[in-house]
Amino acid sequence: DAGITQSPRHKVTETGTPVTLRCHQTENHRYMYWYRQDPGHGLRLIHYSYGVKDTDKGEVSDGYSVSRSKTEDFLLTLESATSSQTSVYFCAISTMVDQPQHFGDGTRLSIL
Amino acid sequence: GESVGLHLPTLSVQEGDNSIINCAYSNSASDYFIWYKQESGKGPQFIIDIRSNMDKRQGQRVTVLLNKTVKHLSLQIAATQPGDSAVYFCAERPVHGSSNTGKLIFGQGTTLQVKP
Hints:
heterodimer; A: about 110 residues; mainly beta; four-stranded antiparallel beta sheet; 11 strands; B: about 120 residues; five-stranded antiparallel beta sheet
């Protein structure tokens, strides 16, 4: 939807391994966001980007890093995955800060 | 602290009836509010938004009402259909001084069940 592709859609990995999730957009939107969704916590912002190479932390950024080398791609990396990072991860994009964010269909990540 | 919450975790309505989903927010400085619908296995889908300088906004079968006095937001769905069954989230955008990053704070969500 809204020209957003998240990959992979599902991933199972082991504690301590690095994991990278990719968000690709075809809308040329400036702003991109990574959220995680957990029961009882709703959607929480991990990191966001307001332009190429411009990123900042959200409310639950510990253990995550991001990179945006070009407008269309926003990568989320778990340097050393932990079981507490088992979650569904959503990418969102928006044209401007006062416009709605549009979401991808998520990546279900399980860390054993 | 900042929080966005919903009064009811589950709402069950009869097909054809109107639905009202409520949301309370705590940050009086928030200037932008959004309602999302999320179906199982999918990402949140934008429904409607409203800015703080408005009290009401209508879309197709949906209306959002904003009461800034009591910091309350509601989503009304007219003639609810089985396809409306989903989880609904409200979100607010707090404004911090002159900085505005577009960060949203989401509520926990309300499940809407439509009975045929």
